[in-house]
Design brief:
This protein has about 210 residues and is α/β, with parallel strands linked by helices. The chain has four helices and ten strands, in the order βαβββαβαββββαβ. α3 links the parallel β5 and β6. Pfam families: NAD_binding_10.
Length: about 210
């Protein structure tokens, strides 16, 4: 049985990941600031920034589901990820990050991103930029077994669980219907599959509904 920790466990994506992992027989511990609202077998009420290496010792994988949306908290995408990397540095524990789609590339040269496109909503640019900056900093970490998983452009909280997805890489991937869409539930399947298989150490991957 794999032991995994989910940080910022009370969020909606985190809840889907926890539910998926528990249903497959994983031993899951949630860490969150608020009271437990998850299906994790174990729960620790503790802020991400207060976590120590001892807290995360013995886990096969840690899922980082941290999110911040206000102007003053957006820099925490970088600082929270750095903190988790620092306390996992040099260990065999894998770190899997719930990422964003804005930093996916739209050309083979990897010089243009989704968030730089003319149709990208202005309201989401600060968030996408903050998450893209955090990813860039993560790429410099050679001391952590990280995997960054970007969802499709249309990331649907209440979308159906189809049980199928396509695995992509650094570039925005469309399915055969020309869509870039995935539900939280199907994203969670991809996340837990990656925990099980561990095929993409120190890589960014992406997922889209099949």
């Amino acid at each position: 049985m794999k032991k995994i920790a989910v940080v910022a466990a009370n969020g909606r994506v985190a809840n889907k990941v926890i539910t998926e992992a528990v249903s497959r027989g994983f031993d899951v511990t949630g860490f969150g600031r608020k009271e437990n609202n998850t299906k994790a077998q174990h729960y620790v009420q503790k802020d991400l920034f207060d976590l120590t290496s001892e807290d995360l010792k013995g886990f096969d994988a840690v899922v980082d589901a941290f999110g911040a949306w206000t102007e003053e908290t957006l820099p925490q995408h970088s600082t929270s990820l750095k903190h988790l990397c620092d306390i996992l540095s040099g260990t065999d524990t894998r770190l899997l990050i719930v990422g964003g789609a804005g930093s996916l590339y739209v050309n083979k040269e990897h010089t243009a991103t989704v968030m730089e496109g003319p149709d990208f909503p202005d309201a989401f640019k600060p968030l996408a930029s903050a998450m893209g900056k955090a990813l860039g900093e993560l790429r410099e970490r050679k001391d952590v077994k990280w995997t960054y998983i970007s969802p499709a452009g249309d990331f649907q909280a209440d979308g159906e669980r189809t049980g199928k997805y396509l695995l992509g890489g650094e570039e925005l991937t469309l399915n055969d219907r020309g869509e870039s869409v995935i539900s939280y539930a199907d994203y969670a399947i991809a996340m837990v599959d990656e925990i099980e298989k561990g095929n993409h150490i120190q890589q960014r991957i992406s997922v889209v509904r099949a």
